[in-house]
Every structure is written in C-alpha cells, then in structure tokens.
Amino acid sequence: xxxxxxxxxxxxxxxxxxxxxxxxxxxxxxxxxxxxxxxxx
Length: 41
Known about the structure:
With 41 residues, the chain is mainly alpha-helical. It has one helix at residues 2-38.
C-alpha cells in the first residue's frame, strides 16, 4: 500500500513538473512571436 501511495505522489510531481515546463515553453514562444510581430523588422 505504501508503494502505491508513493507511486501516486511521484506521478503527481511528474505531472505538475511537466505542466510547468509546458507553460514555460508556451510563454517563451509567445514572447518570441510577439517580438517578431511588433519588434524590429
């Protein structure tokens, strides 16, 4: 039972780490696209 709870906690941490990583990638892409659209040409 302890192993199952540990596995669930590990999956939670991995899920939220992936979610944060994806948000960072989207944010960087948005900044780059905005700079390309409105910045220097």
